[in-house]
Amino acid sequence: MTKIEIKAKASELKDVELILKKVREIEKEHICQCTLIQIDLGINKRCEKKI
C-alpha cells in the first residue's frame, strides 16, 4: 500500500494540479513506496524500496 503525504504552503496552492499530476505519475511508476512528498522550493521525494 502506498502512503503519500503532501505538505504545501498556501502560496503554492495554485500548483495543486501540477502536484496531483506528479503524484499520479509516481503512483504509476511503482518503483518505490513514496512515504513523503514535501513541497519546499520544489518537490522532494523520499522513497523506500519495497523488499
Radius of gyration: 11 Å
| Helix content percent band | 25-40%
**pLDDT averaged residue by residue:** 59
Number of strands: 3
The run of helices and strands is EHEE
- End-to-end separation in angstroms reads 13 Å
**Sheet with the most strands?**
3 strands, mixed
Strand order of the largest sheet: 1-2-3
Strand content: 25-35%
Parts with pLDDT < 50 across at least 5 consecutive residues = 38-43
The backbone outline, from C-alpha atoms, is flat
Q: Tell me the number of structural domains.
A: 1
Describe the fold and architecture.
This protein has 51 residues and is an alpha+beta fold. It has one domain. The chain is 27% helix and 29% strand. It has one helix and three strands, in the order βαββ. The chain has one helix at 16-29; strands spanning 6-7, 33-39, 43-48. The protein has a three-stranded mixed beta sheet, with helices on one face. The model is unreliable at 38-43 (pLDDT under 50).
